[in-house]
Amino acid sequence: MSKQMNSLLFSAAAIAVVSLASAPVQAQPPEGRGPRGGAKKDEVVLPTPRLQNGKIDFGGKGAWAPIWVLDWADRKWVTQSIEVPFTPAGLALFQERRANNSKDDPEGYCLPAGVPRYTGTPYPFQIIQLPDRVVILYEGASHMYRVILMDAKHSADPDPSWLGESIGWWEGNDTLVVDTIAFNGRTWLDYVGHPASESLHVIERYRRPDFRTMMYETTIEDPKYYTKPWTTSFKVRFEPGWEIKEYVCLENNKDLLHLGTTQPK
């Protein structure tokens, strides 16, 4: 993995203690990349790889390398700014987290980033496509994996979890759609603290318009904290030849000395 990317792959524990004021500098794409993770300027655009059945191939020898999306509603990191439709409870919780500088961020305690936050953390991930499922391997945060059952139905009574229960299907040959429910309500949507409850419902759309680019779109629905669903998107760059590395967030997590030893709210 390049030294340039290693500079971005700081510990997930540090996320909870870095101030938002310094975030724009840290979250900028590496030198030479296009805005928000797109193709480099003047780079030769290679065609989208496809499987034998014509569907997009999101795999290959390499890894997806997202930028750090601190705020799913801010155009500094996503395609366009979003006026987030908070409920009074959602706005109050968001403002509390902004006021205390995200000190209770679960990622600071090496807890799973959740969905859609995993896609917006600055650690590589790989996508493995099998006939009946898609598996996403995440390097960062708590080094987890995610299973998306294809052409399936949600369980009648799913067990709540950090990553929820995901099912997927294809819209034509070009868009992978993932529907996720059954969250445990303990994750944040992003660093700035957009909240999520047990009622969170996430719809993601993955496209690959060319070899080096993924277009990622996510729709957030959570009636406890938002008056209506809202949608955001950004680009993720593919890095050929990269492999995800072993990452142990709990090892030498010095930021807990700053945060204290209590669990996040």
Question: Which structural category fits the helices and strands?
Answer: mainly beta
How many domains? The number is 1
Q: State the end-to-end distance.
A: 35 Å
Q: Beta-strand level of the residues, as a percent range?
A: 15-25%
Strand order of the largest sheet: 1-9-8-7-6-5-4-3-2
**Range of helix content:** under 10%
Shape: globular
- Total beta strands: 9
Helices and strands, in N-to-C order? HHEHEEEEEEEEH
Largest sheet: 9 strands, mixed
Radius of gyration: 18 Å
Describe the structure.
- It is built from 4 helices and 9 strands; from the N terminus they run H-H-E-H-E-E-E-E-E-E-E-E-H.
- With 265 residues, it is mainly β.
- It has one domain (3-33, 50-259).
- A 9-stranded mixed β-sheet has the order 1-9-8-7-6-5-4-3-2, with no helix packed on it.
- The chain is globular, with a radius of gyration of 18 Å.
- Mean pLDDT is 85; it is low at 1-36.
Supply database-style keywords:
265 residues; disordered N terminus; single chain; mainly beta; globular; 9 strands; 9% helix
Explain the layout of strands and helices:
Blueprint: H1 3-6, H2 23-26, E1 62-65, H3 88-99, E2 125-129, E3 133-138, E4 145-150, E5 165-171, E6 175-181, E7 201-210, E8 213-221, E9 230-240, H4 256-259
